Amino acid sequence: MGRYLIRRLLQAALVLAVISAITFFLFWATPANPALLICGKNCDTETVAQVNATYGFDDPLIVQYGNYMEGLVSPAGRTIGSEGNERECAWPCFGESYQNGIPVWDSISDAFPSTLWLAVGAAVLWLVSGVMLGLIAALRKGKFIDKFSVGLSLFGVSFPTIVFGYLLLFLFIVKLQWIPFPDTANAALFTVGPVKWLQFYILPWITLALVFAALYTRLTRANMIDTMNEDYIRTARAKGLDERTVVFKHGLRSALTPIITIFGLDVGGLLGGAVITEQIYSITGLGKFSIDSVLANDLPAIMGVVLFAAIFVVVANIIVDVLYAVIDPRVRLS
Amino acid sequence: MTLGVSEAPSPNDGLPAEHLAETAEAKQIEGRSLGKIAFARLRRDKIAIISAVVILLIIAVALLAPLIVKLNGFPPDQFNKLDADGNPLLNTRDGGIPIGGLFGSGSSAEHWLGVEPQNGRDVFSRLVYGTRVSLLVALGGTIIAVVLGTVIGMVAGYFGGWVDTLLSRLMDIMLSFPSLLFVMALTPVIASRGQDLLGIPDDNKLRMGVLMFVLGFFGWAYLARIVRGQTLSLREREFVEAARSLGAGPGYVIFKQLLPNLLPTLLVYTTLLIPGNITAEAALSFLGVGIKEPTASWGRMISDASDWIESNPLYLFFPGMALFITVLAFNLLGDSVRDALDPRAGRG
Fold first, then answer.
1. Whether the bond into B294 is cis, omega within 30 of 0
2. Residue of chain A minimizing CA distance to B196
3. ipTM of the shown complex
4. For residue B192, which residues of chain A lie inside 8 Å, CB to CB?
5. CA-based nearest distance B328→chain A, Å
6. What is the pLDDT of residues A146-158, one digit of tens each?
7. Domain limits, chain B
8. In chain B, positions 268-297, which contact chain A (CB-CB < 8 Å)?
9. For the segment B212-242, what is each residue's pLDDT rounded down to a tens digit?
10. Please, are residues B286 and B298 in contact by the beta-carbon 8 Å criterion?
11. Interface residue B191 vs chain A (CB under 8 A)
12. Rounded CA gap, A302 and A297, in Å?
């Protein structure tokens, strides 16, 4: 187990290194001179030279990449800026925004809590509703409730987030006015109190959860139907166990194993930012930060957010693999 | 978006379609190919027929967009300030919201679905032209993804060994990453690179090409995994072995023996990739990294309309419904095609 974990961690580090290199070269190799981006329209050659020196654009790309990685790997961070105007950039150093000079890591850590709350709340919602609906559908296969949930999940998969999100926003905020319009200020649980916090997050949770809930319903239903046809379920029934034990302890447990894998990956992916949902409800999370950076062509910020998201995905992969081995005794870690 | 990751098992579960069709159907009907059986099943499936009709209608709208727009006489990019009688369409003192019409949309006998606030462009014309963009980008992206997925999946499955290990790891990585974030970050970069390398302006033609490329490039992995699995089991079958022992090369086996058996799978996943790509294009244009002004696209329209959700909800409703209906129709048809091609499905 220990050795397996170490090997996976090394693999993960390798994957992250490859991703960081690819994204770095893709973004920074743009012939459009980044110095022009920074100093704006009225820019003379002297200022460009100065900007180039300050940000190190004169160095070869590989050196720039090395400097960038040093800030992420070395515990002391790195120094940025030109001679005479040097600043310490503490670990983890993702550089400074071209737009406003704020360290990218500060922006990321400011934006992350909103994204975390959004993703976790939605994940609970879709996991519970998806598994319950799928389970009921599988146990009542062919009955009305089964057809209803299959239809509902097809409907849910087909509802694009932008359409569903605005539908909810229009219905509950504009029309019925049950919930106040989301203000751009982020709702932190401890400053605004639970009622306002729930009001802030409830619609984004439902918006984000819909597609996943629909997919999980389908998946749970299919897995559960397969599992309940297994021999060991017949054995369990033949032993005289009551139906509840058969369904929940023998059936659901094994039907859920593949769902846990996908769940881990889905949540890991969302922690990098739920861009569309955050945009609809003006939540200043990572997704909003990333789209704002993309639109402003703010390379260090984009790079930082992409790497940050990649770290979550890689870590989620490892957690899922290890969990899989713990839950499913047939999988042996070698 | 990880649509597809949790799809039900592939239609044939690795067994070649021919063989399964034989065992399932031989008792009742003999000598019918899987394609014929599937088509007969589809014709009896009401949902499949309705969604196919809807899809054909949408394709017709996309193809005939210039003709349809001639009917109402307002080009999608034309700013309309006055109606036929010379009365103003927009209330300039109130931020330019349309005057009259259903729910403040400014709809009338001239402007069937109303006009855009501020600019006065005709919503119906923009919706019709938006269909073009959506379908074109989604189809282009799907074709790229299917070609890449088929080639990579077959290469991995057929040659095995380290090639397979490498490609399978690549599929895992591509599958587990939140592609929207990458697509979003990369689209402007690729657009500006394309602009510099090809010497063409960063207009919406280039943007559409970039979107197709990006959607295709991030969309092949799931299909490749399925194709790989099926190729792995097809490769071991007797008819392939027989051909090999008679001296057939890999070209013959791949194109004449494997590819025909993979076609049903490819058909199902192509139909299911399209709605995902339509959603993705709309999402990117909505976020402002896809299609730009003045070209109409559903995602852009939704983004523009979101500012007017209180005064003019219909402006948001129309592109939203167009998007929803299109995606639903493709998903329903894809599901029906899958059921029809599934030899294990009960009825004949």
1. yes
2. A31
3. 0.86
4. 30, 32
5. 5
6. 999 988 998 899 9
7. 137-297
8. 275, 279, 282-283, 286-289
9. 999 999 899 999 999 999 998 888 888 888 9
10. no
11. no
12. 8
